[in-house]
Design brief:
The protein is an alpha/beta fold and 297 residues long. The chain has a single domain, classed as P-loop containing nucleotide triphosphate hydrolases (Rossmann fold, 3-Layer(aba) Sandwich). The chain is 39% helix and 15% strand. Helix 1 crosses helix 2 and helix 5 crosses helix 7. The longest helix is centred in the middle third of the chain and has 18 residues. It holds the Pfam family MipZ. InterPro entries: DNA_Partitioning_ATPase (IPR050678), MipZ (IPR015223), P-loop_NTPase (IPR027417). This is ATPase.
């Protein structure tokens, strides 16, 4: 793992490409340094790509110039989402913002099998250019502890960790006493974040870590209450913030083929197949952005 990039690397030929960009509805560029948002959790299947897509699209509607990088080289879910968006919008005759997308390579599987130094070098160069072009850079990461994921954590100004509302997912953050259900100690992923914080501190940089409870059931349950208590206790112990949760909504999944999120939905932009309580879902996403301190309340 290398240092924290804040300046362009030496000139050289990049192995990634940049997909097209269309300006956001409010085109004023924000002042100050760009914010690097890493969406990560070593646990798979927690909704990292969905959350990345939600943050990216919602921030464009709040006037931010957004860049995205998908470092999940095998699944490429976020890249597929925005590829769907670039195809569906013109086909439907709809105008909506599209972020800059920095694709690390045409052959992501080959890059996944490359040596770690090559992977990290390509990512860091893409990140530098994304930071020069955007106000917010959203990076979607794979499950597991890969070289690219480690590098992404080191670059994070804001780390967003989605987790399903269960002790199966909580186990990646902290160990639980099976008798009392009290938090015993931080677990493996919490240690990864702790190490990243220490490395960033060497460069005078902070890492704001936010845990997001995802796919919440509509009704309160005893398990949900216990998980919530565990998260709050662990937050005080190791220093992360807890964002308002995202409810389990079919719309988050059924709009993927169109490259849309609830942030896009309006009376003039809604695929015929999608039916969603629009206002409640959009307020939920807005509350998330406020909790992440990406917008003001």
């Amino acid at each position: 793992m290398r240092g924290i990039w804040r300046r362009p690397p030496p000139p050289g030929r990049a192995s990634f490409r940049v997909e097209g960009f269309s300006p956001p509805p409010t085109p004023e560029r924000r002042r100050g340094a760009p914010k690097v948002v890493i969406v990560a959790n070593e646990k798979g299947g927690v909704g990292k790509s969905t959350v990345s897509a939600l943050i990216s699209t919602a921030m464009m509607y709040h006037g931010a110039r957004v860049a995205v990088i998908d470092v999940d080289l095998r699944q490429q879910s976020l890249s597929h989402f925005f590829a769907n968006r670039r195809r569906w919008l013109p086909a439907a005759g709809v105008d909506a913002p599209i972020p800059l997308e920095y694709k690390l390579t045409e052959d992501t599987v080959a890059l996944a099998d490359a040596d770690p130094a090559s992977m990290v070098s390509v990512f860091e160069r893409a990140l530098v250019l994304a930071m020069e072009a955007a106000d917010v850079v959203v990076v979607d990461t794979p499950g597991g502890n890969t070289p690219l994921s480690k590098s992404a954590h080191l670059q994070a100004d804001l780390l967003v960790t989605p987790m399903n509302d269960s002790f199966v997912d909580f186990d990646m953050l902290g160990a639980i006493d099976p008798v009392t259900l009290k938090v015993l100690r931080p677990s493996v992923y919490s240690k990864v974040v702790h190490d990243s914080r220490k490395r960033r501190a060497e460069y005078g940089r902070q890492l704001d870590w936010v845990v997001l409870r995802n796919r919440l059931a509509a009704t309160e349950t005893r398990n949900r209450e216990r998980v919530g208590a565990g998260i709050e206790a662990l937050a005080q112990q190791i220093g992360f913030r807890v964002a308002p949760g995202l409810r389990e909504r079919v719309a988050y999944r059924e709009m993927f083929p169109f490259g849309l999120t609830v942030a896009d939905l309006s009376f003039g932009l809604r695929p015929a197949e999608v039916s969603v309580p629009r206002r409640a879902a959009q307020e939920e996403v807005r509350d998330l952005l406020i909790a992440l301190r990406l917008i003001e309340g």
